[in-house]
Amino acid sequence: MLRNPIALAVAFSDYAERHPSETPLAADFAELLADEAAFERSRTQGHFTGSAWLVSGDGERVLLTHHRKLGRWLQLGGHADGDADLARVALREAEEESGLSDLAVELSVFDLDRHLIPARGEEAAHWHYDVRYVVRACASESFAVSEESLALAWRSIHEVADDAASDDSLRRMAQKWLARPRMSA
Fold first, then answer.
1. Count of domains forming the chain
2. 81 in a domain, yes or no?
3. pLDDT tens-digit profile of 127-173?
4. How far does CA 131 lie from the centroid of its chain?
5. Does residue 184 fall inside a structural domain?
């Protein structure tokens, strides 16, 4: 496996500079880099995952999944499975879970979230250190529901930001997205 923990450490430091209130969280993510197994789901205490804030071409909507195992609306994403390039993981998961091709990933970290995954069957409860990237739909936005989802839906980012019933991290990402400087066409 090709690992570049220095690049991720720099990315976490850059993230902390852009989001000073999240500096302790970014430090926790950087600390996990010292563990060789951090990119493997076999690390039962917790491991890295990569997620996609998959936005429509116009930047007004986000594609969410009604997650089959967790039963909640969330962003697309999944396990690194040994891949230390978490931007690539986010892109791969977005493609696999949405059926969309012609996607583009931004390489800077968009959001960090550490969350507990409940025990299920023989799998013990464990932590996901989720590194989230912006992924843009560059062409067709006609998705296909994968076996990991109960459903997929494009939702207005403004509505997600204002929806008290939405997952806290979804609202946070929507607010971060809406606070970004807009590019002129």
1. 1
2. yes
3. 999 999 999 999 888 787 777 767 889 999 999 999 998 889 999 99
4. 5
5. no
Q: Is residue 166 part of a domain?
A: yes
- Residue 185 domain flag: no
Give the predicted TM-score (pTM) of the model: 0.92
**CA torsion sign, 169 to 132 to 13 to 107?**
negative
The sign of the CA dihedral 150, 148, 153, 64 is positive
Tokens of 81: 């499975």
- State the Cα–Cα distance between residues 185 and 183, nearest whole angstrom: 6
Question: What are the tens digits of pLDDT across the range 65-89?
Answer: 987 776 788 999 999 999 999 999 9
- Judging by beta carbons within 10 Å of its beta carbon (0-12, 13-18, 19+), is residue 6 exposed, middle or buried? exposed
User: Which single residue is written with the structure tokens 């969330």?
Assistant: 74
Sign of CA dihedral 150, 93, 61, 118: positive
Q: What is the CATH number of the domain that holds 59?
A: 3.90.79.10
> What is the residue type of 33?
L
Task: Decide: 109 and 26 in contact? Cβ < 8 Å.
Answer: no
* Domain span at 29: 5-179
Please give the Cα distance from 134 to 155 (Å, whole number).
Answer: 15
List phi, psi (to 5°) of 118.
-65, 155
Query: What is the β-pairing status of strands 126-137 and 73-74?
Result: unpaired
Give 29 or 73, the one with higher predicted confidence.
29
